[in-house]
Amino acid sequence: MKKDKETQLNPSLNNMTMEEVVSFLLAENEKLRQHNLVLEEAIKMLTNKKYGKSSEKTKDVSKDQLQLQFDEVEELAQEEIEHEDELNETVKVAKKVGRKKPSQSNANLEVEEIIYPMDDLLDLGYKLIGEKTIEKYRHQPARVWIERHIYPVYEKELEDGTSDIISKYQGHQFLAKSPASSELVASIMNDKYGKALPLYRIEQAFENIGADISRQTMSNWLLKASDKYLSPIYDHMKADLITHDIIHADETRVQVLNHQDGSDNIQSTMWLYRSGHIDDNIIVYDYKSGRKQEYAESFLEGFKGYLQTDGYQVYKNIANVTQVGCLAHGRRKFTDALKTMGKKTEGAKASANILKIFSEIFTKDRKTQDLSLEDRQKYRIDHLTPLFDKLYNELNEASKKFLPKSAVGKAITYNLNQFESFKNVLLDPRLELTNNRAERAIKPFVIGRKNWLFSNTTKGAKQSSIMYSVIQSAKENGLKVEPYLTFVFDTLSELPQEEWDEETLKSLMPHGRDLPNRLFIKGKTRK
Fold it and tell me: DSSP letter string over 103-155?
């Protein structure tokens, strides 16, 4: 009766002996068990991704590895509680060593001295034997006021019966038909695109100091200022970036509600391109309505050189480009896989062995940071090439032991598919092992997106890419963002638009060589 049920479920069992049926069912059971393991790993991975810490800490982890810790305050507070037994000892050490004064730990801040003399005591027989210095951080809250510009208009009657009218007003002011000043728009722009503050919070901050400036008004100011003053600078930044021979790239989604470019994608894409670590600091965001290869090809038209990216397939098919992979992404696949497995499983052991080789590669490469390019290349060839070979062999051996759909199997497949691009880092000593430069650069946009969630229009998304590009590049170049933006606005406002020549616009780029020293954070220098 039992066998009849089995044959009804699977007619192919009709012609099998009892032993063959048992073998068949055992094999089917093993397949189901393996499938169940894959599903369990997927659940664990998704759970960890949603609720776990976004960290890849392992022994000898690379210092530049990205770590997103949104619970930093709680972690630090908990750390203090866990170490409260050491509190007395810590206090003693602090008293012995002494705490740094604000002027010592923040050498880039201006220092204002206020002296409290008691010269009348000198007349009473006292003598000056020293001084007691106390330092305090001072802060000036935001202040908004109305500056009224009055231009008297003069008229003179001429002999021919006409009149001559003269006034100092020339009409070349910043956003001439708007009450916004250059420094106010620079502040709002930096708050939104440099500090990730949504406009409604900026609006509330203005309300708290008595200023009635609506979100709609601020939006208009930002879009007009970006379109008129920053767009031409952005175009020169993009053109300059393409002339370099090393570019890092990344991309992330952005939701646009109202498309004005004929597209209807709910999820559009913000692409990110930036220069290599020894070149000028140029960061360019590029909004597109999709994630297809044609968008990357369009931006990179004319570029020839090394393109360092993650494993996204479209980058591999771009002409005249040598794709360089990101070892951090390869390593991340195994750290993620480890979180889904028990410590004593075969998958965990294999992952640990592979991660150890990754660690050796990063450790060896860190020793080259202070070497000349020539010496760095020689060291890499001599010391990293054997490690890459060892990694490839380990991946190949592991691929024979694990199901392709398991977590460790997927990690192995990803790394083998990307391996040639990983090894391309050895082609040039200027190349980095990871694409962390691009990931760091796109992070401000991702953080901002958590606050504002979506862009209303295509035009707004495109102008956002321009403002992000200029502001994040300014920060990378050690510029004080608000003074820099104000300088750009004022410089261009003083000239008729037809006089904005190429030389002027290039000099205003965030990596421009002729920017005044006063725009740089003290202690920061140009590359």
Answer: HHH-TTS---------GGGGGGT----------------------------EE
Residue 427 per-residue DSSP state: G
Distance from C-alpha of 276 to C-alpha of 285, rounded to nearest angstrom: 15
Q: Which two tokens stand for residue 151?
A: 């231009």
Q: pLDDT at position 74, please?
A: 40
Which residue would you say has higher pLDDT here, 73 or 501? 501
Structure tokens at 329: 């992404």
CA atoms of 196 and 178, how far apart (whole Å): 25
Using only the alpha carbons of the chain, give its radius of gyration.
31
What does the longest C-alpha to C-alpha distance in the chain come to?
125
What b-and-e string marks burial along 243-275, b requiring 16 or more CB atoms within 10 Å of the CB? ebebbbbbbbebebeeeeeeeeeeebbbbbbbb
For residue 262, is pLDDT > 80? no
Give the residue from 452, 525, 447 showing the smallest Cα distance to 66.
Answer: 447
3-state secondary structure string, 10-48? Answer: CHHHHHCCHHHHHHHHHHHHHHHHHHHHHHHHHHHHHHH
Strands 154-157 and 305-308: unpaired
Prediction pTM value: 0.76
∠ CA(316), CA(321), CA(325), 5° rounding?
A: 50
- CA–CA distance, 323 with 470 (Å, rounded to integer): 26
299 in Cβ contact with 396 (< 8 Å): no
Q: Are 470 and 510 in contact (CB under 8 A)?
A: yes
CA atoms within a 13 Å half-sphere pointing along the CA-CB vector of 185: 26
- Which of the residue ranges 43-52, 141-150, 185-194, 421-430 would you say has the lowest mean pLDDT? 43-52
What residues pair up with 273 in beta bridges, in sequence order?
A: 249, 284
CA distances in angstroms from 233 to 241, 481, 501, 506, listed in the order given? 12, 15, 11, 7
Residues 6+ apart with CB under 8 A from 6: 13, 21, 25
* 253 CB-near residues (< 8 Å, 6+ apart): 267, 268, 269, 270, 291
Check the CA dihedral 429-434-438-443 and report its sign.
negative
Question: What value, to the nearest 5°, has the Cα angle with vertex 408 and ends 425 and 342?
Answer: 130
- 148 pLDDT band, cuts 50/70/90, is confident
Q: Decide if 467 contacts 476 (C-beta within 8 A).
A: no
Question: Could you give the CA distance from residue 294 to residue 135 in angstroms, rounded to a whole number?
Answer: 58
Q: Are 433 and 63 in contact (CB under 8 A)?
A: no
Partner residues linked to 267 by β-bridges = 255
Nearest CA among 146, 118, 300, 134 for reference residue 210: 146
> What's the CA gap between 75 and 83, in Å, rounded?
12
Measure the CA–CA gap between 265 and 285, rounded to whole angstroms: 19
